[in-house]
Amino acid sequence: MVTPPIKFGILGCAGIARKVSRAITLSPNSTLYAVGSRSVEKAAKFARENGFPESAKVYGSYDAVLDDPDVDAVYIPLPTSLHIKWAVLAAQKKKHVLLEKPVALNVGELDAILEACESSGVQIMDATMWMHHPRTAKMREFLSDNSMFGELKSVLSCFTFAADKDFLENDIRVKPDLDALGALGDVGWYCIRSILWAVDFELPKSVLALRGTVLNSSGVILACSASLLWEDGKTATFHCSFLANLTMDVTVVGTNGTLHFHDFVIPFEEKKASFSTSIKSGFNELVTGWEPKPSQHTVTTELPQEALMLSEFSRLVGSIKFENAKPEKKWPMLSRKTQLVLDAVKASIERGYETVEVMN
């Protein structure tokens, strides 16, 4: 059965909303229907510049988007401090919610959002785009193959970029009243998600923030690192920063194999992405090289990962709207586990680098 496309409203005109607007257009089962900003003029300008159809609704408030009976789902790219208000309101208005990360300032706020979504029977998903790239599923196959990868022992994750002076002074991600989690919430979210993905979303027993956290004059994190520990001895370490060259590396080490990928958040190229694997590696006889050498694998895709994310989200919304299905619980569960670890890292920093237990 061919179902009508899901009609999206966007709350706000953040820079990331440009990318997601394009993704909504590229996705075969979604359409740009409305945008709301704090002024009609700003919303109209955003719609003109980002491929909205002429029939799209332009509103001078976020409430107006939520009050539009034809809007099926909303994308919320607002500052993290505003998520609890607008995500809860969206759910109460029976709008499905695609929520930009970090999803909340803490797990208490997130639980309020999730409760509102569950009460209203609407789907919620966070906008962690790389989870939807076909490369991610292909890498999971390798990690799940005991003969090739073996038992997971450690994960290393790093996401950094060198922010310019204007960003470090004016961007919402360095403002305590807007995005108080700073680099931990922005780039650190991806690191934590990559680690949890590698361990098949088994929560660690504890986390320990590493000394050397960099704060701005307002106390917002600009760079930090942490180690995670599991009951069975698995370990992971991540580093996130607004102060170092662009790096997006993940390494997953098992007893038999190793997985590397160097562009995990945004692939080097839009329609293909690579990863390397090494299996039972050793040195040659003179210890001058590796045998066997790591192998490179490339995965192609017709649609970019953000469009695949929109397509999957819209499929779930469509199944609820047209087939009376229940919301998929996997995605809010992944959001909550990521938030729990993020909260524990923040607590470890605030307690002077104490070990903090991760509570489910």
UniProtKB/TrEMBL annotation:
Domain of life: Eukaryota
One Pfam family recorded for the sequence: GFO_IDH_MocA_C3
An annotated Gene Ontology molecular function: nucleotide binding
Sequence ranges assigned to domain GFO/IDH/MocA-like oxidoreductase in this UniProt record: 145-259
Domain Gfo/Idh/MocA-like oxidoreductase N-terminal: 6-125
SUPFAM superfamilies, alphabetized: Glyceraldehyde-3-phosphate dehydrogenase-like, C-terminal domain, NAD(P)-binding Rossmann-fold domains
Family: Belongs to the Gfo/Idh/MocA family.
Protein name (record): Uncharacterized oxidoreductase At4g09670-like
Gene behind this protein: LOC105178934
